[in-house]
């Protein structure tokens, strides 16, 4: 019976009720676009998304959801719920921006505010579409008299702040039967794919200030400690698994060349497809930092800013998501949008071979067990709750995340059209799961099989509290 359900889910066919959901989302597309553009015009950084969070909460409250704000000791985190009983289907919404990528909705580089923040990862669209999907699922439950609970999780600070990690640790997701999410992208896909686990850490060195020319012997350079550490970390690259990614910036290196720096700081990321390997490599980095401090006669302390698991794919849920994405289809550009896309593509480095037509394509379904690319705090959730996601071409094909090109497309009709595709796909997938409790049970069985009998969740952030000031 379970196999028949999964096979049926792969057939791109919409029931009358599902067609009504699609129709209503089309009718409210302008309403949800306005919400997304309010977030785009007011980009707020991680854990500082006060107005963005409030707007999404108010939208859900107005739609009949019960909203609890300030969950998991995070002022901008919230949970909105409608319905009762099982299954409990969760949808996650992000809404934080990135620093330094302010950009107008034009196909050439032009910041709104020089050095200001911008939605270079499309989280304004993410938040609005997820809210739209939750409201659509709520209306479907109500109209069909179905039992079940729809929850929208407002998850702050995905960009390096790990909001979902602290929400997962708090236990507020423990009773969820299936979790859905999506992300802005340059293509359309709903594959069952992993990601890279990641630990990000600030290493702080403390020395003694002195006149660098008159009395250098009295100084102890904190910058020497940072540079010694970074030199040895770069040597470590030869001796870690090839899938490892390590990168850093020096966030403080001193104030003047003629003053021996009394304080210096280096901000490091280490990534790998396996969270256990990340922890092992991170422990070696700590030993390197300790050695650097000893060698430079300085003091060192470190702070783990964020730590996330790799995503644990769930093929059962992802097949539903893929089938619904195929039934909705990708983006069809207007002539004006195509011109915008072509101008964006002309700004790419040589060798990026893409076409505006690629925005209409749906990537074939597959399972990717070993993660590549970036990291996300969705990973922690996926080890606790069966989780599936998708990407939609809200950016011009070929656009990289965290770029001005992403901000530009996300602030005009290309981003808005992609957002509605995501909302439709999430809505239909939630409805599928409400109608097929056997599939929800199968997704849970898959989760237990993939993570193993001996799995115990231990956050890579340890027992630290949410870093609410990491962007200040």
TrEMBL record:
<protein>
    <submittedName>
        <fullName>Amidohydrolase</fullName>
    </submittedName>
</protein>
<dbReference type="InterPro" id="IPR017439">
    <property type="entry name" value="Amidohydrolase"/>
</dbReference>
<feature type="compositionally biased region" description="Basic and acidic residues">
    <location>
        <begin position="462"/>
        <end position="472"/>
    </location>
</feature>
<dbReference type="InterPro" id="IPR036264">
    <property type="entry name" value="Bact_exopeptidase_dim_dom"/>
</dbReference>
<feature type="region of interest" description="Disordered">
    <location>
        <begin position="452"/>
        <end position="472"/>
    </location>
</feature>
<dbReference type="InterPro" id="IPR052030">
    <property type="entry name" value="Peptidase_M20/M20A_hydrolases"/>
</dbReference>
<dbReference type="InterPro" id="IPR017145">
    <property type="entry name" value="Aminobenzoyl-glu_utiliz_pB"/>
</dbReference>
<dbReference type="InterPro" id="IPR002933">
    <property type="entry name" value="Peptidase_M20"/>
</dbReference>
<feature type="domain" description="Peptidase M20 dimerisation">
    <location>
        <begin position="200"/>
        <end position="295"/>
    </location>
</feature>
<dbReference type="Pfam" id="PF01546">
    <property type="entry name" value="Peptidase_M20"/>
</dbReference>
<dbReference type="Pfam" id="PF07687">
    <property type="entry name" value="M20_dimer"/>
</dbReference>
<dbReference type="InterPro" id="IPR011650">
    <property type="entry name" value="Peptidase_M20_dimer"/>
</dbReference>
<keyword id="KW-0378">Hydrolase</keyword>
């Amino acid at each position: 019976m379970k196999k028949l359900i999964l096979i049926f889910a792969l057939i791109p066919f919409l029931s009358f009720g599902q067609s009504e959901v699609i129709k209503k989302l089309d009718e409210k597309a302008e309403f949800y676009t306005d919400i997304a553009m309010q977030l785009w015009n007011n980009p707020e950084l991680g854990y500082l998304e006060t107005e963005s969070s409030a707007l999404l909460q108010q939208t859900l409250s107005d739609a009949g959801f019960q909203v609890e704000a300030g969950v998991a000791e995070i002022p901008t985190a919230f949970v909105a719920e409608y319905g009762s009983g099982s299954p409990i289907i969760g949808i996650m919404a992000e809404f934080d921006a990135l620093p330094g990528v302010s950009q107008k909705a034009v196909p050439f580089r032009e910041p709104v505010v020089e050095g200001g923040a911008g939605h270079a990862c499309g989280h304004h669209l993410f938040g609005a579409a997820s809210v739209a999907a939750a409201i659509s699922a709520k209306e479907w439950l109500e109209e069909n008299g179905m039992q079940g609970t729809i929850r929208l999780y407002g998850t702050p600070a995905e960009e390096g702040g790990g909001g979902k990690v602290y929400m997962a640790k708090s236990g507020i997701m423990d009773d969820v039967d299936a979790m859905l999410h999506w992300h802005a992208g340059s293509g359309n896909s709903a594959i069952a794919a992993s990601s890279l686990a990641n630990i990000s850490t600030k290493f702080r060195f403390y020395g003694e200030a002195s006149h660098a020319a008159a009395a250098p012997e009295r100084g102890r350079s904190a910058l020497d400690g940072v540079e010694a550490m970074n030199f040895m970390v770069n040597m470590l690259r030869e001796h870690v698994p090839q899938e490892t990614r390590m990168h850093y910036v020096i966030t403080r290196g001193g104030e003047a060349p003629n003053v021996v720096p009394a304080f210096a700081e280096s901000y490091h990321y280490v990534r790998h497809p396996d969270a256990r390997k990340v922890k092992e490599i991170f422990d070696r980095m700590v030993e390197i930092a300790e050695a650097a401090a000893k060698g430079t006669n300085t003091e060192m302390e470190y702070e783990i800013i964020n730590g996330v698991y790799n995503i644990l794919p769930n093929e059962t849920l992802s097949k539903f998501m893929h089938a619904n994405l195929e039934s909705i289809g990708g983006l069809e550009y207007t002539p004006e949008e195509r011109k915008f896309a072509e101008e964006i593509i002309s700004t790419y480095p040589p060798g990026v071979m893409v076409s505006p037509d690629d925005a209409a394509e749906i990537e074939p379904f597959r399972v990717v067990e070993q993660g590549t690319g970036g990291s996300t705090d969705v990973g922690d959730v996926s080890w606790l709750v069966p989780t599936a996601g998708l990407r939609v071409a809200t950016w011009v094909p070929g656009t990289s995340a965290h770029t001005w090109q992403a901000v530009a497309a996300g602030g005009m009709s290309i981003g808005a059209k992609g957002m509605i595709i995501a909302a439709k796909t999430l809505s239909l997938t939630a409805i599928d799961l409400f109608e097929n409790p056997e599939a929800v049970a199968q997704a849970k069985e898959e989760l237990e099989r993939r993570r193993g009998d001996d799995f115990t969740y231990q956050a890579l952030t340890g027992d630290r509290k949410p870093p609410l000031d990491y962007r200040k």
